[in-house]
Write a structure and sequence with these properties.
The complex is a heterotrimer of chains A (374), B (393) and C (367).
Chain A lengths: L1 H7 L1 H29 L6 H19 L15 H31 L8 H19 L3 H23 L7 H22 L7 E2 L8 E5 L2 E4 H23 L1 H11 L1 H6 L4 H27 L1 E2 L3 H16 L4 H22 L4 H15 L15
Antiparallel strand pairs in A: 1-4, 2-3
Helix pairs in contact in A: 1-13, 2-8, 2-11, 2-12, 2-13, 3-4, 3-11, 3-12, 4-5, 4-11, 5-6, 8-9, 8-11, 9-11, 12-13, 12-14, 13-14
Chain B lengths: L1 H22 L30 E7 L6 H21 L5 E7 L7 H10 L3 E5 L4 H14 L2 E4 L15 E3 L4 H15 L5 E5 L3 H14 L3 E6 L8 H10 L3 E5 L2 H13 L5 E4 L6 H7 L7 E4 L8 H10 L9 H16 L5 H10 L1 E3 L4 E3 L12 E6 L2 E7 L2
Parallel strand pairs in B: 1-2, 1-3, 3-4, 4-5, 6-7, 6-8, 8-9, 9-10
Antiparallel strand pairs in B: 10-13, 11-12, 13-14
Chain C lengths: L1 H10 L3 H12 L2 H16 L8 H7 L6 H25 L8 H17 L5 H23 L4 H21 L29 H22 L2 H11 L1 H6 L4 H27 L9 H14 L4 H17 L6 H16 L13 H4 L14
The chains are: A mainly alpha (374), B alpha/beta (393), C mainly alpha (367).
Chain lengths: 374, 393, 367
């Protein structure tokens, strides 16, 4: 029974696989960029994606005032209005995800590089005061006020401690990332209006079939995702390869010390790297809500793990590798699920990774944000 | 509202800890952090039963991913206890919470704590099947009676636990009923079956599959943590069944229903009791319309008296899934206390002979702890609401 | 400024612990031995600590049973942290799927004592340790040739593969899990039953002591020095004639064996396991325990493991919020004490530090 299904659903699986793979690829870019520059697995990147899906939701419902349902049906929009709504959501996701990634860098990573700044100190101080407030207060509002009051003195103390100028070991970065990821997820779960339940996003795009290819319906949402991902990827490649800042990113990726000597502002370049990764994750998040109309506090975790797998599969640090890795992973998951059953989906993904790394130890395309380094 | 008291109790205790630690002063013994809502029992009993220092416990998830389900169940037990306490001023029964987060790894330590608390005479719970398997051996060894209002896994009753009771029929009753409904009422010749590879979902789907036999033309499992179910959807689309059964919980059921409809699958969707939640309709939107949901649970809201009492106790809320079962379970324990049973052995013995009309059904247990009768109800999603159709068969 | 200085002294408060260690080291052998014996005795009596006035109030776990928390969580986490510390802290290999070995150990005991045979626990336990070790070698042989972070994602995948396979295969009890796992045999007054957790604690604590003893021997042996060399600079170690692959595989196998040991203890205590006991998040928690305590330092791993296991139970009253607080705490500890609460002592290497520019590294850095 399984064999005939795989043949007859082959093209169907291909289209959905490439679409899901494109989302993996966009998120994988964030991992790859940060890894290429800092040699850090940015574990909290999955939460940047999650923030992006919520940004899309907030833009659609709170800013644009779209209802969840209109007369018992989805609030479909058409033409120019549709394009505007989608662009607004995309912008919202990109801005919030980008800002989130930058804030993350400055609060959870930069202090570990020994060059803590005021912003990081303030964020950390606020969070500390907020946590202390949890002991005394029950309502989020009074807790928030306590947190804000406590921020000043604690931030001042933190700044004094920051001025050490010592670089932390790489494991510390990873654990800080895990901590930040946990805190962000839980904050959304606890203080979100729907607790831990799933959120829906209004569906404005009617999922019409555009055309048929090899007897398979090609839906408009998949087309938008695939084309959108390619456009964003191209823009990123142009930025990294053609602009002055992009050259800075590559320089830092190649050799931090030399880049510093040559006058590259390393902290700024790292910030830009996080921003780029965040913007890409934001784009992926908007497209994700377009296809699946949903979000949840823990939505990023599994997708993040998969995207990181995709990044490694393609060759971490390699931008084109992220694209290839994402699409290969998306396809392998779909074909594999059809062959062996959906319960083996993740096993298929990881076995594929293992096999690829055994034969190509640096991934399909090798590592090369700057140039392959061992 | 319960949670906030609990939090505050914890918060006060922790802040006290900080203060004393800072002062370095010695303190007298330890501060009790019991979450029991004990009222002053000094008032002399005028009427009703008298008792002193007895309580029952709720065991299940109150926080974590399954927290909302657990809170709804707990509310049913809470209602029964507060009704009892109002009626019997001389016998104030406490309700102690054991928040397992639905995690079998935390369950044994919590069960141990419940056993160590001599005032606890019975457990409403454990709420899920996994934690039941981890905690029930302890309850059994201690002779502490349990009535689970929601763990429906079929093989829970063949462990020879003498303390085990269930306030609703298990999946071994529900599965065949679903199959009957699909074949008889829906007259579906070709059926697709999907499950979420969880203990509950796969267990139920397997029973449905074996009962339906050759009528199953396609089956698949999905990963409930993933967002994309396109492999399973493609399979169903190609096999074109008349009905699709999904064994799993409501959040994924909503996503799956949507993706199936988006792909143009028109089969009738059938779900088990894990989907009977408004969250399903919210997640699926218009895609939920016409879906069939079965449940061994009765419609709590259709019992007007219970629904009114529930809304009076919890303003603005209506009984949710398993709330009525938890109410019935707590009632059974309270009846034992009212009958003057003040030790665990007495309560356990009392349950063996208990036979009373509950909100959901006649509550009476056979020797394996299964509730008498095997009522399975069918519900249908119409115009964005879950409406009861009636009993199956 | 005095305020910030006092804060600085608080954040480095554990330095006083190491100072205590230094002070002790100066004492005579008999003083050191009796101090150690008193500590060990006090820790054996840990299940009774909640009855001690002030101390009990600090350690008790309101809302759940303290002795059970010790056996189900603390002992397991300490053992696991010790094992993972060999892999991460000593050999510098980033392992994000350590829960896989823990699961292999637990499942081996479950299969041999309940699912497919009725062997006694005492026989299952060494088999479980060997099987986990074998799993470590099987996973390590192809993957340890990979550099640094590739290993992280591969091990993460391994942990998931183990969990999903257990979940899907009927032979492994699928999602229903395995019940009625054998308990350790009762010896005299130590009765390993269902209700009394204390015998399990004595067994677990004794196991920890034995593991610590063995690891100390190992750390000070040729193997330990080789790990040190590999962690600090793999290429240099290779050039100096250290068979890096062999020693990395050793670290992996020993770490896996300790993980399997922890799993077999857990299965014997709880008598029921299912795949939900071994989620991916647990691997991350294990790693957090090691790094929080101080990667590379065995005592750090012990403290980190105990804290990560005990804290959530101590602060049960906070319900959901404790996980949020845990996340924040991880960031803060890493920001202010990046080497962990009890950092690795850099004994012999210290003379190097004095003239080398500061490039503190713990994990095969290539900056």
């Amino acid at each position: 029974m399984r064999d005939w299904l795989i043949y007859r659903t082959f093209w169907d699986l291909t289209v959905t696989g490439v679409a899901l793979g494109s989302i993996y690829a966009l998120v994988a870019l964030g991992y790859t960029l940060v890894y290429g520059v800092l040699r850090l697995i940015n574990f909290a990147h999955s939460e940047i994606f999650m923030i992006g899906t919520f940004a899309s939701l907030i833009t659609a419902t709170n800013v644009l005032g779209l209802p969840m349902l209109e007369a018992g049906d989805y609030p479909y929009r058409t033409g120019f209005q549709l394009v505007l709504i989608l662009l607004a959501c995309l912008l919202g996701s990109m801005v919030l995800s980008g800002a989130g990634a930058v804030a993350l860098e400055r609060a959870a990573y930069r202090p570990l590089r020994g060059s803590g700044d005021q912003f990081g100190a303030v964020v950390l101080a606020f969070v500390t005061a907020f946590v202390v407030g949890l002991v005394f207060f029950d309502t989020p509002k009074s807790n928030l006020i306590f947190g804000i009051i406590g921020t000043g003195p604690i931030a001042w103390m933190y700044l004094n401690i920051f001025r050490r100028g010592r670089q932390a070991p790489r494991l510390a970065f990873l654990i800080s990332a895990i901590g930040a990821s946990t805190a962000i997820t839980e904050a959304v779960a606890i203080w979100g209006p729907r607790d831990r339940e799933q959120y829906q996003t209004p569906r404005v795009l009617e999922k019409k079939t555009l055309f048929q290819l090899f007897g398979t319906d090609i839906r408009i949402d998949y087309v938008i995702v695939i084309i959108g991902a390619l456009l964003m990827m191209t823009a990123l490649l142009l930025f990294v390869n053609r602009t002055r800042l992009g050259r800075g990113v590559r320089a830092v990726a190649q050799d931090v010390e030399t880049a510093k000597i040559l006058g590259v502002n390393v902290d700024f370049v790292i910030l830009i790297t996080f921003l780029l990764g965040g913007v890409m994750a934001g784009g992926a998040a908007m497209m994700f809500t377009l296809v699946y109309d949903q979000s949840k506090f823990n939505i990023g975790f599994l997708l993040g793990v998969k995207s990181f797998t995709a990044a490694v599969l393609g060759g971490i640090g390699n931008l084109k590798g992220a694209l290839l890795g994402g699409i290969v992973l998306g396809l392998a998951e779909n074909y594999g699920s059809a062959l062996f059953g959906g319960e083996w989906k993740d096993v298929i993904a990881f076995v594929l990774l293992l096999v690829v790394l055994m034969f190509r130890p640096t991934g399909l395309l090798g590592e090369s944000l700057a140039k392959a380094r061992v | 509202m319960k949670k906030s008291t609990l939090l505050r109790a914890g918060a006060i205790a922790v802040s006290l800890a900080f203060v004393t630690a800072a002062c370095g002063s010695d303190s007298e013994g330890s501060v009790s952090e019991d979450t029991v809502v004990t009222e002053d029992t000094a008032a002399a009993a005028v009427d009703g039963v008298t008792c002193d220092g007895v309580s029952i416990a709720f065991f299940g998830a109150l926080s974590g991913d399954a927290g909302n389900l657990g809170k709804n169940i707990r509310a049913g037990a809470d209602l029964a206890v507060s009704e009892f306490n109002t009626a019997n001023p001389g016998c104030q029964v406490g309700l102690v919470d054991f928040d397992s987060q639905g995690d079998p790894a935390q369950a044994p330590a919590l069960a141990q704590k419940a056993i160590d608390d001599a005032s606890i005479l019975g457990i409403v719970g454990p709420a899920f099947s996994g934690e039941s398997k981890a905690a029930n051996p302890l309850f059994d060894a201690a002779g502490l009676a349990i009535i689970t209002p929601s763990a429906t896994n079929a093989d829970l009753n063949d462990n020879n636990w003498k303390v085990f009771h269930r306030a609703l029929a298990g999946d071994d009753k529900q599965g065949p009923a679903i199959a009957t409904y699909i074949q008889k009422t829906l007259a579906a010749a070709k059926v697709g079956v999907i499950d979420d590879a969880s203990e509950y979902g796969k267990g139920l789907a397997d029973i449905v599959k074996t009962t339906l036999g050759a009528a199953v033309v396609a089956s698949d499992s999905i990963d409930p943590k993933a967002a994309d179910f396109s492999a399973a959807v493609s399979k169903m689309k190609e096999a074109a069944p008349d009905a699709i059964f999904y064994g799993g919980y409501y959040a994924e059921a909503g996503k799956l229903a949507k993706q199936l409809r988006d792909a143009g699958v028109t089969a009738t969707l059938v779900f088990g009791d894990g989907v009977k939640d408004n969250g399903f309709i919210e997640a699926a939107g218009p895609a939920a319309d016409g879906s069939i949901i079965t449940c061994t649970c009765a419609d709590g809201a259709s019992n007007a008296e219970f629904a009114a009492a529930y809304t009076a106790k919890f303003p603005g809320e209506t009984p949710q899934t398993y709330g009525a079962e938890a109410y019935d379970a707590a009632k059974a324990f309270l009846a034992a206390i009212a009958a003057g049973k003040t030790d665990r052995a007495g309560v356990l013995e009392f349950l063996g002979t208990y036979d009373a009309a509950g909100v959901t059904k006649q509550i009476k247990w056979d020797e394996t702890g299964e509730v008498a009768g095997n009522a399975v109800y069918a519900y249908k999603v119409e115009a964005g609401a879950i409406a009861v159709i009636g009993l199956i068969e | 400024m005095s305020l910030s200085e006092s804060l600085r002294s608080v954040t480095s408060g554990t330095r006083s612990v190491s100072r205590l260690g230094e002070a002790l080291a100066k004492q005579s052998r008999s003083v050191r031995w009796s101090f150690g014996a008193i500590c060990i005795l006090a820790l054996y009596l840990l299940p009774w600590w909640p009855n001690v006035p002030v101390l009990g109030w600090i350690v008790e776990t309101p809302g759940t049973s303290f002795p059970s928390v010790l056996t189900d969580q603390v002992v397991i986490f300490v053992l696991v942290a010790l094992g993972l510390n060999v892999v991460v802290g000593l050999a510098g290999l980033l392992d994000l799927g350590y829960v896989g070995f823990y699961a292999v150990g637990a499942y081996t005991v479950a299969i041999l004592s309940s699912q497919h045979a009725n062997l006694p626990w005492l026989l299952c336990m060494p088999i479980a340790v060997l099987v986990s070790m074998l799993a470590g070698v099987i996973l390590g042989t192809p993957t340890l040739r990979l550099r640094g972070d590739y290993l992280a994602i591969v091990t993460l995948g391994f942990g998931e593969i183990i969990r999903i396979t257990a979940n899907n295969l009927h032979w492994l009890g699928d999602s229903r899990g395995i019940s009625n796992i054998a308990t350790p045999p009762s010896i005299g007054p130590l009765k390993f039953g269902v209700l009394d957790a204390k015998p399990y604690y004595f067994l677990g604590f004794t196991t920890i002591l034995i593991v610590i003893f063995l690891l100390r021997r190992l750390e000070n042996s040729r193997v330990g020095r080789s790990w040190n060399a590999i962690r600090e600079d793999e290429d240099a170690a290779e050039l100096m004639g250290v068979d890096t692959f062999k020693f990395k595989l050793w670290a992996f196998a020993i770490g896996a064996a300790i993980g399997g040991l922890a799993g077999s203890l857990y299965a014997g205590k709880v008598q029921f396991i299912n795949p939900n006991n071994f989620p991916l998040q647990l691997s991350i928690l294990f790693l957090a325990a090691v790094v929080l305590g101080g990667a590379g330092n065995m005592w750090g791993a012990v403290v980190g493991g105990a804290l990560v296991a005990w804290m959530p139970e101590r602060f049960r009253g906070f319900a959901d919020k404790r996980v949020f607080v845990f996340g924040v705490a991880l960031v803060l500890v890493m920001v202010f004490r990046p080497q962990g609460l009890i950092p690795r002592k850099i004994r012999k290497e210290r003379w190097l530090e004095s003239w080398k520019p500061s490039t503190g590294t713990a994990l095969g850095s290539k900056e």
